[in-house]
């Protein structure tokens, strides 16, 4: 250990001009990982030179790598909060605290309406943020993500002659699963959050992944208001490119009540100082659709037309919302997990004695099935499972799927269930 610390000190103390460009206090992952190193090295040695370098990297993170105009750190954000929390617990730096709290609020507590993606890895900082703010939302979101992550960690069959293919690789074990699960589950338990409580509303549903590229694709969803009065439906699309997508809303009599064209824009590059990767600001296709004088007795049909097969939609409203797939058709989902995905949930009702699930990429998209009412675990993938799995779970039962990956990796052919899928248990209905 001392040899490693001494070698790192000797290299870091050199004139940066003597080093290759990439080693001159480079940004992103390399900078964030050094926060971890300097804190541990200082607590091992109490060396004042290590302390000076810890301060330098702390300042690089808070002042150079953080871009306040979009409230983001430069990517890749691997090891970001592993190091920042260690630095802050040791030094209690006011500037770093302000940056961390602002960024965590924007990337952990973010709402889908903001257009910002939730960063699953940043859950590692939620315990620290909760201690500073006493904001219960940190505990609820962290617990929610921890338990859904746990559901998509595949079981292992150690009796096999060869190790099965595993969907979690390398440092993903630590930074994407183990730490977020430990931090989120512990914080949730300390704050008294029920382990089966659902707080995220960020499941995107594929509009029609089986659509042919040379034909106009059509996807359908249904909205049933919970109360009388004007209803606002928030729509956000992912993976649209710059192609306009037509949305038509009609009532049960077939009358058009709203029309909108949705289009996203290319991400813009945000300039940050020093060596490192580009920082991109996303501009997803989003809209608020007003349905005047909506009634609970009415079911509204939303039809999307002209999208790519990989396009997914998120719908939010004070209403029950279901997305329709062809019976036995392909369904793909993902959630607002940024670069990584915390387990997207969707609900449906069983119609047959056997539910058959055929995964397009089984090794990339393990899944779990739970009873929607009791949250009893009914199935969880095992590493090496074949693409097709058959489940006898009881006709008429409302179930929840928790799926890893993003569309198209999460795509599944599901038969033996209603062709209507919702993001929450309370949202589900059959139009």
Describe the structure.
- The structure is a single chain.
- With 431 residues, this protein is of the alpha+beta class.
- Among the domains are: 2-107, no CATH class; 201-321, Jelly Rolls, CATH 2.60.120.
- The chain is built from eight helices and 23 strands.
- The chain has helices at 2-12, 29-45, 48-65, 80-91, 94-107, 126-133, 136-151, 172-190, and strands spanning 66-67, 72-73, 203-206, 218-225, 229-238, 245-250, 256-262, 265-270, 279-283, 285-294, 300-305, 312-316, 319-324, 330-331, 333-335, 344-349, 355-359, 367-371, 377-380, 388-391, 398-403, 412-415, 420-421.
- The strands form six sheets. Strands 7-6-11-4-13-23 form a six-stranded antiparallel sheet, with no helix packed on it. It has a five-stranded antiparallel sheet with strand order 10-5-12-3-15, with no helix packed on it. Strands 14-22-17-20 form a four-stranded antiparallel sheet, with no helix packed on it.
- A hairpin with a 4-residue loop joins β1 and β2.
- α3 (48-65) crosses α5 (94-107) and α7 crosses α8.
- It is globular.
- The model has no long low-confidence stretch (mean pLDDT 90).
